[in-house]
Amino acid sequence: MSAATLGRITIDQKICHGKPTIRGLRYPVDMMLDLLASGMSTEELLADYPDLQREDILACLEYAAKLTNINSIYRIAV
Fold it and tell me: Which of 18, 27, 44, 78 pairs as cysteine with 22 (C-beta 3.0–4.6 A)?
């Protein structure tokens, strides 16, 4: 991850139960990704959440991309 992303995506057990958030603002990364996946544009997100910046949305995408960059996936017994 780039240094810019590391500074924008934070994990704090006191905020959103330790889920990754944007700059500790209580906007979980997964929520932003869900909104983007539902068809919202970056511009719509920024209009709905005025304290976010374009770089925050890009950081969410970079964070998700890095999470999918794994070597192996193992099935967990249920």
Answer: 27
**pLDDT tens by residue, 40-49:** 999 999 999 9
Q: What share of the chain is helix, strand, coil (3-state, %, to 5)?
A: 50, 5, 40
Buried b (16+ CB within 10 A) or exposed e, 35-51: bbeeeeeeeebeeebee
Q: What is the pTM of this model?
A: 0.81
Reduce the DSSP state of residue 22 to 3 states and report it: strand
- Report the interhelical angle of 54-68 vs 29-37 (nearest 10°): 90
Q: Which domains does the chain have, with CATH numbers?
A: 3-67 (1.10.10.10)
Report the alpha-carbon distance of residue 18 to residue 66 in Å, rounded: 19
Note the helical H segments in the chain.
Answer: 3-8, 29-37, 42-48, 54-68
